[in-house]
Design brief:
The protein is of the alpha+beta class. The chain contains five helices and 13 strands. A hairpin with a 2-residue loop joins strand 8 and strand 9. It is globular and about 50 Å long.
């Protein structure tokens, strides 16, 4: 019997949901259920969220020039306001990305025949804030799977630390803000700009127009994070003291995360 697109997405989602529950990553999805289109990847994401009983708190997105756009829902349960603390079992790593995030002020249900523009997105922003996205893939090697498989798994999203809405953000050149990412006293990245899409609002324009085609849309109060301005850097939790991770955007503010090691069985 031929497998339908719905059956395929459901089978893929069952596998990824179990990986999230067990904490045991896999090499990749079986070829017969791995998504081969962006629509299939969105469908797997939705089903994983349903299986795990998760609600959407916001979205991550990227629209780098000359490369495929991508997006993923971020579960509300993974949102933590800065300063934050995260514990990991000994020996694990967590990817760290310093990002510019925006808070949506009004529902954007889609406008057939009249796509949202950058000006529309500017009008629909309630606030802009500094953020740290925490990254941990459900695959053993994220670079070994296809873009659609990565997107099905939420593009390795693990958690999200966000700061205060920055006053006066409309006067800032968001594409060229000085950014500094530090692990303890060690500065890992210090540069100007760095967003993979150049202008961090461009991926939000794409997402606002793409989500209605998948059966949902941006909603008031959701936070959209716009891609790493510092690349992906992996951190090991400090032992015995937490490792203080901080991301600072000039004019936008700072966020911090204390990354601590727990015991081998996850206690503490």
């Amino acid at each position: 019997m031929q497998t339908t697109a719905t059956d395929k997405a459901a089978r893929a989602a069952l596998i990824l949901a179990e990986v999230r529950r067990s904490g045991q990553p896999i090499e990749g999805l079986p070829p017969e259920v791995a998504p081969t289109t962006e629509d299939e990847a969105w469908a797997v994401q939705r089903e994983v969220m349903r299986l795990l009983g998760l609600s959407v708190g916001g979205w991550k997105c990227a629209a780098p020039p000359g490369r495929p756009q991508s997006g993923a829902a971020m579960p509300a349960s993974g949102f933590v306001r800065s300063p934050a603390r995260q514990a990991l079992p000994w020996g694990q790593q967590l990817g760290i990305e310093a990002e510019i995030a925006i808070r949506i002020a009004a529902d954007l249900p889609g406008r057939p025949g009249r796509p949202y523009t950058r000006a529309d997105i500017l009008d629909a922003i309630a606030g802009v804030m500094p953020a740290i996205e925490l990254v941990q893939s459900r695959y053993t090697n994220l670079r070994a799977v296809s873009n659609f498989e990565a997107m099905a798994d939420g593009i390795a999203h693990f958690g999200f630390v966000y700061g205060e809405d920055a006053p006066g953000w409309r006067s800032l050149d968001l594409a060229n803000l000085p950014v500094r990412l530090a692990f303890g006293e060690e500065v890992e990245v210090e540069q100007i700009g760095g967003n993979p899409s150049g202008d961090p609002l461009l991926p939000v324009v794409w997402l606002a127009n793409r989500l209605p085609e998948t059966g949902t849309h941006l909603r008031a109060g959701e936070i959209v994070t716009t891609g790493s301005c510092t690349g992906l850097i992996f951190a090991n939790p400090g032992t015995p003291e937490p490792l203080r991770i901080s991301a600072t955007f000039e004019g936008l503010g700072a966020v911090s995360l204390d990354l601590a090691a727990s015991c081998p069985f996850g206690f503490g």
